[in-house]
From TrEMBL:
InterPro entries assigned: Endonuclease_MobA/VirD2 (IPR005094)
Domain MobA/VirD2-like nuclease: from-to ranges: 43-151
Phylogenetic lineage: Bacteria, Pseudomonadati, Bacteroidota, Flavobacteriia, Flavobacteriales
Protein name, as recorded: Relaxase/mobilization nuclease domain-containing protein
One Pfam assignment: Relaxase
Length: 425
């Protein structure tokens, strides 16, 4: 079991996030400790926050008074509501919050059922409850609760090693947000790409695409990205997911910085020349498209070919897993451009040369054949310690930040600032 302890200055926001799950029938209130209860068992955020107001009013000097904890058993653990309640009580008692008012929410919106606990970190007299060695203490309690309730040990290296890290998204499996996050959050840590088109070519291996959302001058905010799940034909099969759900590194600004950094890194390397030699070597035997892709894949290179409705090739991208770099064909040279391969395989179908417009969003519905990641991705499974160290999280919803929660809290902050400006005006 993994516990995540979050602290902030907005207990209302933490309650609102969880109550929204209840209102949307994606969660429920399991247990309340020293909370003001209602006769009908129905609650609003305003009603729930009243239980914490005396503690917050008495607060003397603590800045981050809100306490928001999530307890996440392994998805394979079958935990009943009664066991969740007992675990929550045991955890809060051992952490020193057993006498505090707290409320336990169960979330059921994803395959991994888990609980959230909202409380405050100051006692009735307004004194801060000690949080020294909090992480170490929390981990120790989790190991004890695993033994007591016969749960899977989250520190078990073998179980972590067997988790699939980079796997194509499968809409039939469910929990799309976690599937998308496991790829989106980690891809930039390993791969160099210089444009949005190259990034999308890499994402397409995992049945994912992203689109740029541009803001006009009159609109408030920055340019953003939306992510979608794809089927094996490259067609969108999900609602859009905002980049903020996957953390700041998935956003437009962070990717732009990654493009620039990749450009400088690849400029100083010999990868460009080596890849050209490899592709040239394969082309010497005049293979058809299928043979060409298969031969390169055996060498650790995926080839993404994009066609328009008439079948004309308008883009080609090479993903070299050995050097972990992505290259639009024209970046390697004119002989590797979309026009060159259109002449080579399609007999020069007429059309405009769109290879120069590679920076536009790739229309994945025009990828005729979905490529799969090369087996070199297996290097991620070889050493569980390095995987955890490098990623910080294999399963983002379990071992890392809950970015849906952070996104909700950020929206609450923006709303308050907007209201404050109106009030001052």
């Amino acid at each position: 079991m993994i516990a995540k302890v979050g602290r902030g200055n907005n207990v209302y926001g933490a309650l609102a996030y969880n109550q929204l799950k209840v209102d949307d029938e994606k969660g429920q209130i399991l247990f309340m400790n020293k909370m003001i209860e209602t006769k009908d068992g129905k609650y609003t955020v305003a009603q729930l926050v009243k239980s914490f107001e005396p503690y917050l009013a008495a607060n003397k000097n603590a800045e981050k008074t809100a306490l928001h904890i999530s307890l996440n058993p392994d998805p394979k653990d079958n935990v009943s509501d009664e066991k969740f309640i007992q675990m929550a009580q045991d955890y809060m008692n051992e952490m020193g919050y057993g006498n505090q008012p707290f409320i336990v929410f169960k979330h059921t919106d994803i395959n991994r059922t888990h609980i959230h606990i909202v409380s405050v970190g100051v006692d009735e007299e307004g004194k801060k409850i000690s949080d020294k060695f909090e992480k170490r203490k929390s981990m120790k309690i989790c190991r004890e609760l695993e033994k007591k309730y016969n749960l899977i040990n989250a520190s078990n290296k073998e179980s972590v090693q067997n988790e699939k890290v980079f796997s194509p998204v499968n809409i039939r499996v469910g929990d799309l947000k976690s599937q998308l996050a496991s790829v989106i959050r980690n891809i930039p840590n390993y791969y160099q790409f210089q444009t949005l088109g190259e990034y999308n070519a890499l994402l397409s291996l995992f049945n994912i695409t992203c689109e740029k959302v541009e803001k006009s001058e009159k609109e408030v905010g920055k340019n953003g990205l939306l992510y979608f799940a794809l089927n094996d034909k490259g067609e969108k099969v999900s609602q859009p997911f905002k980049a903020s759900l996957f953390g700041k590194n998935a956003g437009f600004e962070a990717l732009n910085n990654h493009f620039l950094k990749s450009r400088e890194t690849l400029k100083l390397s010999s990868i460009h020349d080596k890849l050209k030699e490899t592709v040239t070597l394969v082309m010497k035997n005049k293979p058809n498209e299928s043979e060409f892709k298969n031969k390169l894949q055996q060498m650790g290179i995926n080839t993404i070919v994009r066609r328009n409705a008439s079948g004309r090739i308008y883009g080609i991208t090479f993903i070299d897993h050995q050097s972990t770099s992505v290259w639009n064909g024209s970046r390697l040279g004119k002989e590797f451009s979309a026009n060159a391969f259109n002449q080579y395989w399609n007999g020069g179908l007429d059309g405009n040369n769109e290879d120069e417009k590679e920076c536009k969003n790739i229309s994945n519905s025009e990828i005729l054949q979905s490529e799969k990641p090369h087996e070199l991705f297996n290097f991620l499974h070889q050493d569980s310690n390095s995987v955890i160290e490098g990623f910080g999280s294999i399963m983002p919803e379990i071992l890392g930040e809950d970015y849906e929660e952070l996104d909700f809290e950020n929206r609450m902050k923006r709303k308050r600032k907007k209201n404050n400006r109106r009030f001052r005006g």
